[in-house]
Write the C-alpha cells for this entry.
Amino acid sequence: MASAELQYLPSAQKSQTSTVQTNAPYLTDAASIDRVIRAMTLEEKAKFVVGVGMPGFTRGPFEITGAVGGTYGIPRLGIPELRMADGPAGLRIRPTRPGQTQTYYATAFPIATSLASTWDTAVAKVVGEAQGNEVKEYGIDMFLAPALNIHRNPLNGRNFEYYSEDPLISGKIAASVVNGIQSNGVGATIKHFAANNQETNRMIIDTIVSQRALREIYLKGFEIAVKESRPWAVMSSYNKINGTYASENTDLLTAVLRKDWGFKGFVMTDWFAGKDPVEQMKAGNDLIMPGASKKSNLIKLAVISGRLDEKVLDRNIKNILQIIIQTPEFKKYQNSDRPDLKAHAMVARTAAAEGMVLLRNKDHALPISKNKKIALFGNTQIETIKGGTGSGDVNAAYTVSIADGLTDAGYELNQELLSKYKVYINSLRQQEPYKIKPNPWGEDFGKVVPVIPERPLEENEIASAAKGNDFGMIVIGRNSGEAEDRKVVKGDYLLSDAEKDMISRVSSEFRKQGKKVAVILNIGGPIEVASWRDKVDSILLAWQPGQEAGNAVADIVSGKVNPAGKLTTTFPLKYSDVPSAVNFPGTPASNPVKVIYQEDIYVGYRYYTTFRVKTAYEFGYGLSYTNFNISDVKISEGKKFKDNLSLSAMVENTGSVPGREVVQVYVSAPDGNLEKPAVELKAFSKTKELKPYQRQLLHFNLNAKDLASFDEEKSAWILEKGTYTVKVGASSENIKGSATFTVDHEMIVQKVSDVLKPKVDFKRLTKQ
Ligand code: BGC
C-alpha cells in the first residue's frame, strides 16, 4: 500500500464497515442527500461519478436495448441506476428485443432545424411533451436532447440536430422543447456545451474564439435555455475552447454555467470526451460518460494522493443526486412500454408541415388541387429521408415516402414513372455498393443507406410525362450525420450532374407544355440553389420532416396547410460567401487541430446584413400562399429607454386564404466602443391563423439584457448610448416598419465572470 493510501485508511475502513452497516441512510428526498453522501465509501463515490459503460463498447446491453448510458446505482443507500437515451429528433432505442414480439418503435419527429423553422414555441413544446412521454413510457430517465449548437457553417454534418445560426431562436425553441420534455417528469439534457460546431476531429479540435463571440453567439442559446427551462442536465462537448477541453473547463462549467447563469442540474460529458477524469471532476463536470472502471480508479487514486479534494466529489455527487430524486426510476414509475404512437405521429406531422419553408412560388404554382395529375421525379420520392444519421437517428416504425403521401392525399401520380423508380431502386438495392447495410456502430443506430445515383431519365419519358400530366415535381434528397462534415462537392452541397440535368430537362419539357414544375428539397441543411432555382416555378424546403414526411409534404402541396415556416439558417448564394468558409474545419487542412473563429460575432445573417453580401434566401425568409401586411410599429414607452420596452405591430392577412405570419423584431444598435452587426434578432412571434383581412396586434417586450452587447474589457453586458432602431419585418432583409429609441448614457446591465479568454492573438473580422 502506498503511503498516500495508508493516510487515507480511516475512510477506507469506513468503506468496509459501511457495507455491513444496517442502519445506513437511505435516499428519500432532498434532505437525505448530505447524509447519503457521508455514508458513501470512497470507492462508491468514485464509481458514482462515472457512468456504467456503453453497450457494445464497455458492457453488454441495458434492459432497455438502445439506451446509451446509465448511472451507477448503490442499492444499500437507495440510489437507483438511471438510464439515458438519445435524441433529438425522437427517442433512439432499439425497436426489437431478443425473444420478444413486442416492438419498441419511437416517433421520428422533424429534425431540429425544421422544428426551429416553425418559429413556433408552442409547437416545439408539444413536440417536447410527446418526446418526453416516449422517454418515460419506455423506461428512460434522461433524454440526451435537445441539441442547440450554432449553425456556424452549413457544412457541419450535425447541423440538422441543431436549430439555427441565431442564438435567440435556438434558445427559445430549446427552452420550449425542454419544458415540454420535463413536463413528463423526465430529464432533458441540453448539448453540446459549447462551441461544438463541426464534426471534423471533433474530439480534439481546439476552438479559438473571442469572449464576445462566445457570450453573444455560442453561449447565448444555452443561457436562454438554462434560465427559461431549467434543464436537468447539460452535456459538455468534445472540443477544446481556447485550449481547454469543454469537459475539463472550470470557467465554462462552473463560472459561466453555475455562477453566472445559476444552473442547478448536473453536467455530464459527451461520450468518451476529454482526457483527464480528475480535471473533469474539478471543472464541475459531475458525471463522466459513458464510463469505464479505469476512470473511477483514477478518480479514487487522485483523492487518495491528494490531487483531488474529496469535497469536489461530494459536490458533484450532490448535483447528480438532486436530479436522481426527481426521476421516474427513483419514484418507481411503472412504465407501460406503450406510448401513444398514433397520437405522436400526428404531432410529428403537424410540426413537420409547420416547419416547411416555401422558398419560391412563381405565379402561385402551389398549392395543387387534388384532381391534378403529378409526374414525380427523383429517387427520394421513394426513399424519403426522415432525419439525419448517427446518434440523432430514430428507429421509427415507418417513414411515409413523398410518393405515398401524395397518393394517400388523393393525387394521381404518373404510375409508369413511379414504377420505373421503384424497379430501379429495388434492383440497385440488391447490388453492391448500394445494398442497405447494418450500421457498424450497432443495431441501435439505424441502417447504412448508400446513396443511389439518380435514375437516368430516358429521352422521351420526360416529354411524354409532360404531355400526360398536369404538374412536374422533382424531389432532391440529402443526408448527413454524426462523425463527418458535409463537403462542397457535387451530390452534397452542390447538385450532382444528374440532378441538374433532371431539373433542366423536366422544367423545359413541362414549360413547353405550359405546365409547372416544383422542387421538393428533402434535406438537412442548405445546398446550392442559385444556379438552378429560376428553372422551376416552386421550391418547397421540406427539410427532413420525420416519419410523417410524405403526409406533411402533401399537406402543404394541397394547401391543407398554408406554409408558414421561415429559415433559421441562411441559404448563401455560394459557399465561399459563408463568413467561416476560410476557417472551416480548421488547420492544418490535412488534419485540423484548431479552428479559429475569425468571423467573430458575424455569424450567419449578422455577417450578410452587415457586410451587404447577397444571399440566395436570407435568414427569416419564407413565403405563404397568402400575403401579409405588417404595419403600425409602435414603442409604447416613448423615445427614451429606461429598463424595458414594449413594442407592438399590426399584422393583416391581405391575401385570399387563411394563414399565419412570423413577425421578427430586429434591432440595429449604434456603434460605440463596441461595433454592432447591422441587425440582430431580438424577439419574434407567430400570429394565430388569420383569415383574409383579419388582423392581429402582436406585442413584444425587450429588456436591457435583451438589447445589450458583451464588453470584454468590462466583462459585462452593456447597453451603449445612442439611437437604436427597432426593425420589424418578415425576414432579416424584408423590414416592414421601424421605430427608434435612445439610450442616454451607457448602462452596465450585468457583470459576469471574466473567463474563457483566448490564449493567442488572432485577427477578428471587423467593420472598420
Ligand atoms: C454524441 C452525443 C450523444 C452520445 C450518446 C455522442 O457521440 O455526440 O450527442 O448523446 O454520443 O450516444
